[in-house]
Amino acid sequence: MSETALPSPNATTTAGPLLSVEDLHVSFPHPTGSAVEALRGIDLTIARGEMVGVVGESGAGKTTLARAILGMVPRPGRVTRGRVTFRGEVMTELEDDARRAILGRDLSMIIPNPRGELNPVLTVGEHIGNVLRHHRGLDKAAARTAALDLLRAVAIPDPQRRLDAYPHELSGGMAQRVVIAIALACSPTLVISDDATSGLDVTVQAQILDLLKALIRANDASAIFITRDIAVTAHFCDRIAVLYAGEIVELAAVGTFFDRPQHPYSIMLLAAFAYSSELRRHWTRPPAEEETLPPGGCSFAARCVRRQQRCLMERPALRQLPGGSAVRCHFPVGGAT
Ligand SMILES: Nc1ncnc2c1ncn2[C@@H]1O[C@H](COP(=O)(O)OP(=O)(O)OP(=O)(O)O)[C@@H](O)[C@H]1O
């Protein structure tokens, strides 16, 4: 097997987008009585072979979106409205058994801190082998051979020896490669990476993201890259969705987004990564001015340097722009009102 070769992708069965998220609302009850609305009407489709980045600050709802796509919103949280359809299956309505048959085979998720997720008493070979035996029906010997191929595909050093290693014997980068091998073992058609490389050092992060992208592309799969680092999306994605307070506030092709961001929050995010402190100052309201505004208006209004009276009164809809972009703002930066 060559370095990026994986088993053939699972046959797809439906036309149309691979994944469709429609008007998705998720809420978590709060001890004080008022619920936390983690997602408030998410609409997103992912085409076959497409890589979409989901960015936003901590608490924006990125992980909740990933979990809702998998049909695994942690209790007592729940989907209160809308639905997720993956290859024709309504994930938000599936019984546990039907969902388990899809997860890890057609749809898989890669999470950060992989050593914490790996079972300390199972070897690397057993971890990967279990997935292959469960979903692809391989016997023990065939699963071990396939696991070795996967370790080669994720470019792990000395793969034969690592097959019998336990999680505590792996570096963080190696453990992340093992988790990628597990996630890709059954050639999923959609991979969700939830901040998968956070916590690794920067050069290892770049290597792992490059590898992940190559493997996903080689497999003709689609991906959602959830990240707090907007630069990651520039290198790895076709489109970018900016999440703020449980809503998509901007959706655009990566080139368009970085050339002409439309939402003031997108520019604030970009400014946070920019060298220019002038740019940051221009687009960021000092914390003292971040008032609590009455509900009902734009969720970003309190922090927005461009807000006007209308923003306090009326929640903006996600509006389509020419070229396939969309923005949730009454006064987008490009002036497309
Ligand atoms: N299990 C839970 N119980 C209660 N509230 C939750 C739970 N999980 C998420 N939330 C709330 O939902 C909102 C969105 O959280 P989420 O973890 O999806 O954000 P995030 O964008 O992934 O943040 P981070 O980048 O820090 O992981 C937050 O207000 C969070 O407090």
Brief overview, please?
Keywords: ATP-binding, Cell inner membrane, Cell membrane, Membrane, Nucleotide-binding, Translocase, Transport. The chain has 337 residues and is of the alpha/beta class.
User: Bound compounds, please?
Assistant: adenosine-5'-triphosphate
- Multimer state: single chain
The overall average pLDDT, rounded, is 87
How many domains comprise the coordinates? Answer: 2
The N- to C-terminal Cα distance equals 53 Å
Share in helix: 25-40%
Largest sheet: 8 strands, mixed
Gyration radius, rounded: 21 Å
Q: What is the total tally of β strands?
A: 12
Under CATH at level 1, the class of the largest domain stands as Alpha Beta
Q: How does CATH name the architecture of the largest domain?
A: 3-Layer(aba) Sandwich
Low-confidence stretches: 1-14
